[in-house]
Amino acid sequence: MSCGEPHETDCSEVLDHLYEFLDSEMPAADRDKFQQHFEECSPCLEKYGLEQAVKKLVKRCCGHDDVPIDLRAKVMGRIDLIRSGQAVPEHDITATPQES
Prior knowledge:
There is one protein chain. The chain is mostly helical. It has helices at residues 11-16, 18-22, 28-40, 42-62, 69-84. Residues 11-44 form the Putative zinc-finger domain. Pfam families: zf-HC2. InterPro entries: Anit_sigma_mycothiol_RsrA, Znf_put. This is Mycothiol system anti-sigma-R factor.
């Protein structure tokens, strides 16, 4: 997505890291860049608002359930693989038939 206007931070970069922004999981300098982009770019601001609303809805509806420790570890492992650029298997080869 792009609004067609030139920005210091490209729309695709903002949208690729939107959840990091929403979750406050990025350095302050990057947060400032993204905030400035949202002030300049209404399509990205709209997408931000939509994703923020979805995140709040999920938290309200599902936020009280505890995540099993092993599931959290598997998810975090896959995130680390994706961030490092390694291939991620379609199915977890360590999963038992009941987990697949």
